[in-house]
Design a protein that fits this description.
By secondary structure, the chain is α+β, with helices and mostly antiparallel strands. It has a single domain, classed as Ribosomal protein L30/L7 (Ribosomal Protein L30, Chain: A), CATH 3.30.1390.20. It contains 2 helices and 3 strands, in the order βαβαβ. Strands 2-1-3 form a 3-stranded antiparallel beta sheet, with no helix packed on it. The longest helix has 10 residues. The chain is globular, with a radius of gyration of 11 Å.
Length: 59
């Protein structure tokens, strides 16, 4: 089984650029402290890198 990433939104998206909001929505993060588990793919890693200042990632 491929490794999974546990991604938690720890900072608000209010006042952030629309591109950051779109990335968070694409990751399935729409509320503060919400956690999603996604596969460890290059696409997900790129999205996480774009909003790294807003999320916490665990492997």
């Amino acid at each position: 089984m491929a490794t999974q990433l546990k991604i938690t939104l720890v900072r608000s998206h209010i006042g952030r650029p629309s591109a950051h909001r779109a990335v968070l929505l694409g990751l399935g993060l729409n509320k503060l402290n919400k956690t999603v588990t996604l596969g460890d793919t290059p696409e997900v890693r790129g999205m996480v890198r774009k909003v790294a200042h807003l999320v916490k990632v665990e492997e």
